[in-house]
Amino acid sequence: MQDSKGTPTSDRGFTIWFTGLSGSGKSTLSRLVEAELRSRRFTKIEILDGDMVRTHLSKGLGFTREDRDTNIKRIGFVCNLLSRNGVIAIAAAISPYREVRDFIRKDIVDFVEVFCHCPLSVCIERDVKGLYKKAIAGEIKNYTGLDDPYEPPLNPEVVLETDKETPEESVSKIMHKLEMLGYIPAGEAIYTEEEEEKVKKRLEGWGYL
Amino acid sequence: MAKKVLIIGLDCAPPGLVFDRWKHLLPSLRGLMEEGIYGKLESTIPPITIPAWTSMVTSKNPGTLGFYGIRNRQDYSYDKMIFANSVYVKEDTLWDILSRKGKKVVAMAVPQTYPPKPVNGCMITCFLTPDTNSRYTYPDSLKREIQSWVGEYMLDVDNFRTEEKEELLKQIYQMTEKQFNVALHLLKEKEWDFFMMVQMGVDRIHHAFWKFSDPSHAQYVPGSKYEHAIRDYYIYVDQKVGELLSHLDDETAVLVASDHGAKAMVGGICVNEWLMKNGYLQLKQKPSGITPFAKVQVDWEKTVAWGEGGYYSRIFLNVKGREPQGLVSPSDYERVREELRKGLEAITDDHGVNIGTKAYKPEEIYKEARNIPPDLIVYFGNLSWRSVGSIGHGSIVTFENDTGPDDANHDTHGIFIMKAPGLKNKGQRDGLKILDVAPTVLSLLGMDVPKDMEGRIIE
Fold first, then answer.
1. Do A176 and B118 touch (CB under 8 A)?
2. Burial zone of A24 (CB within 10 Å; 0-12 exposed, 13-18 middle, 19+ buried)
3. CB contact set of B357 (below 8 Å; sequence gap of 6+)
4. Is A95 a catalytic residue?
5. Is the minimum CB–CB distance between B401 and chain A shorter than 8 Å?
6. With contact defined as beta carbons under 8 Å apart, do B200 and B178 qualify?
7. From CA B157, how far away is CA B165, in angstroms rounded?
8. What residues in B contact A164, CB-CB < 8 Å?
């Protein structure tokens, strides 16, 4: 995915699929991974966030098992279209059922499953959207982790422990995996202006330049 | 065959100091020499940290690697120079090959390893890392371990102001101690088949303190408090090497190597002043005072060539159709280049004595020259003089440096010492080359040597 000048080319896309409980860090990390990829000069990237998808692509679908599966299959369908056309697709959806995730994996050739592992108690404590509170109070039904199951992946490409790692560490794990799998060139990091100046000063100081 | 291989890199260590002058004071290194083989190790052209270490670990010459110094031209424009960091290393290193084969590796402070790449083991990057806030380890979690072992890690010595010698010396020792301590932890606590560390302190102390200990140096002052600074540092490093060795078994091969040597620096040749004086370089406006070349206004339409500063010089011709405002027509290129070579090789010192400059054409020394090679690679006074790129000195010869300390320059030969199980014919060897190290390591580990490696196995 790199031309002779080191610029990533976009002849081959892939899908990064974040799965995990609500509040496990999927959306945050998907945005950070996107930013990291952009800093490495990748330009064709799309995020399909579960919450966002439900207001457009899957409007009207509820939270029954059937509706959830339909929602995930739609996201998978779009990811497949994108990645086979050279786009890096990043899906961030709870996607609680193993069967449908594996269905998507079979469909998408270049599929990187990222499991955001985080204990339910921590997610409840975080409760960024205030939905756990409502679910616990019985105002929301079929809430994943409470009265609807979450089935962790058995063989994900990456396992993050978002209660123990910093977001930077989690991103770094994902990037390493993408490098190992050959989806992105290894270590394609570029100095910031300030960093470059620092290195230059050191090298001048030691007489190299 | 060895079960494991440890390489201890001592950047800039010259044969003269290790094999002769201070051999009696260095029991660890001497022990390895006595039990193994040793000899001068011919460096790359140029004998510079980058590309030399990468040539060592890939067995590829600088032309194949496409690195002609720490900074290289990105394209044929006049001002785009990029740092040769690990992103641009496209050839397999020893840790790439060994990782793929399932061997566990540790690569520590080897130049040109920033940003870090995933390996089957761990990596700590080099002095091209901006600072310890950067990602300087693989895996990331290693950073926390390092902090717990030695506190704030030191990637290099940044306080190079030449007047503050005491502080500088302190920092060189601090860095060396921290790095050897980290190495000891890694050596003892991590699983490894191949371990390589490079200590830059040797290079730093040469550049900053050489004149105090070398009576042949023009600025040598006998009896200075720093007279034995380098010697004492070598003794210290030898002790640290000894600590590492004490944790190895007999089935581990140990290599000690340097990327290049060192020699006293006589002075500097202001390469761009010389080009100006001889009509090859025109400025739109002469700067007031000494000014870095990148900041002067060059009249490119009237310029034939320009030069880079450093321990050696790189001369670039301003070629029509190649550079944006090229002047030299391609049909005249060879004549101009030859004329420049003769002119540069005739440069004299302030007493009118020829300093013995050597100028190389890339195609004469490399089988191929990838990326953008210089048109000439120049060793002023065969590396006894550095290249000064800045303008405004008012003379070609200078004893005032534009950047950095001016005590020592690089030399063409470093050191090689190897103690390995089952080694026959111990003692001194001639004709060893930096490209021989990588195939030797693979052979020690009983692995096939890739056909495109350019060196030979040292047996």
1. yes
2. buried
3. B269, B344, B345, B346, B347, B378, B379, B380, B381, B382, B385
4. yes
5. yes
6. no
7. 12
8. none
Q: Answer positive or negative: Cα dihedral of B107, B110, B112, B114.
A: positive
Which helix or strand (DSSP H or E) is residue A148 part of?
A: none
B 270-289 → A contacts, CB under 8 A: none
For CA atoms A154, A159, A160, A161, give the dihedral sign.
Answer: positive
Cα separation of B250 and B253, whole Å?
8
DSSP state letter for B286: P
Instruction: Print pLDDT tens along chain B (459 aa).
Output: 899 999 999 999 999 999 999 999 999 999 999 999 999 999 999 999 999 999 999 999 999 999 999 999 988 999 888 899 888 888 999 999 998 888 999 999 999 999 887 788 999 999 999 999 988 998 888 999 999 999 999 999 986 655 788 999 999 999 999 999 999 999 999 999 999 999 999 999 998 999 999 998 888 888 999 999 999 999 999 999 999 999 999 999 999 999 999 999 999 999 999 999 999 999 999 898 999 999 999 999 999 999 999 999 999 999 999 999 999 999 999 999 999 999 999 999 999 999 999 999 999 999 999 999 999 999 999 999 999 999 999 899 998 765 555 788 999 999 999 999 989 889 999 999 999 999 999 999 999 999 999 999 998
Contacts of B34 (CB under 8 A, 6+ apart): B426
Contacting B residues, span 316-345, partner chain A, CB-CB under 8 Å: none
Residues of A whose CB is below 8 A from B135 = 172, 189
Length of chain A: 209
CA-CA-CA-CA torsion sign (B234, B108, B171, B148): negative
| B105-108 vs B297-298, strand pairing mode | unpaired
Inform me whether the C-beta atom of residue B382 falls under 8 Å from chain A C-beta atoms: no
Interchain contact, B311 vs A207, CB within 8 Å: yes
Instruction: Answer whether A191 sits within 8 Å of B130, measured CB to CB.
Output: yes
**B77 close contact with A: CB closer than 8 A:** no
Q: What is the C-alpha separation between B286 and B281, in angstroms, rounded?
A: 12
Q: Which two tokens stand for residue B131?
A: 């600072």
| B309 interfaces chain A, CB cutoff of 8 Å | yes
Could you give the CA distance from residue A119 to residue B458 in angstroms, rounded to a whole number? Answer: 55
Chain B residue whose CA is closest to A208? B310
Q: Which pTM was predicted? A: 0.76
Longest dimension (CA), chain A: 70
Measured CA to CA, the distance from residue A180 to residue A130 in angstroms comes to 38
| Alpha carbon distance B428, B415 (integer Å) | 11
Written as six digits, the tokens of A58 are 């899957």
Task: Quote the CA–CA distance of A194 and B130 in Å, as a whole number.
Answer: 9
Complex prediction ipTM: 0.90
Candidate from A6, A187, A209 with C-beta closest to B117: A187
Two tokens at B254?
A: 């140990």
A35-65 burial string, b = 16+ CB within 10 Å, else e? ebbeebebeebbbbbbeebbeeebeebebee
Query: φ and ψ at A202, to 5 degrees?
Result: -60, -45
